[in-house]
What we know:
Layout: H1 8-25, H2 29-47, E1 52-55, H3 59-72, E2 84-86, H4 91-100, H5 106-114, E3 120-125, H6 131-143, E4 146-151, H7 158-161, E5 164-167, H8 173-195
Parallel strand pairs: 1-2, 1-3, 3-4, 4-5
Helix pairs in contact: 1-8, 2-8, 3-8, 5-6
Amino acid sequence: MAGDANSEESLWIRQRLQQAQAAYASLGDDFLQKVVEATEMAVECLLNQGGIFLLGNGGSAADAQHWTAELVGRYLHEREPLNVHALTVNSSTLTALVNDYPAERLFERQVRAHLKAGDLLVAISTSGQSANVLRAVEAAKALGARTLAVTGRDGGKLAPICDLAWVAPSADTPRIQEMHLLFGHLWCEGIERRFVQD
C-alpha cells in the first residue's frame, strides 16, 4: 500500500537511513580534531592574504562548488566575502584542457596558473585515487601551497601526499559523500566564525 512504512520500498529507504546514521555515529574525536585543524589551516591562509582553491570530480566537484559558495557568499552570518575559488566551474577552460591535454592534467594546469606559495588547495575525492586530483596536489606542493585532502576508504594515494587529510571512515561512496557534506559545513562554519564582526 502506498505510504506504508513497512512496504518493500520503505524498508530499503529505512536501511539506507540506518546506514547513514551509523556512519555519522562513527565520527569521534579524530573527526573533530581534523575539522579544527582544517579550519585553522584555512584561516591562517586567508589572514595571510592567501587564496583557497577547491577541486574534485563528479559529486566532489559539487562539494567544491558548494563550499566555495558558502564562503564567498555567507554560510550562517553576514561578513566580508572570502578569497575562495572552485577550479571546477569554467566550462570553456575545462573543455579546452581536456581537449588539448590528457585528462589527468585538467586541474594541474589550473593550479599552475592560479596558485602561489601560501595558498591552500583543498582536494576532495571519495577514493583518493583520481589521477587529475593527485597531479594537482603535486603541482600545488611544488609551488609552495599547502594541501588539504578530504577523502574516504583508506585515503588512497591522496591522503599521504597532503599536509593534512581527513578520511571518511567508510568504503561506501554515498556514505562518504554524506560525511564529506558534514565536514564541509563544519569547516565553512568554523572559518566563518573567525571572520564575523562582533
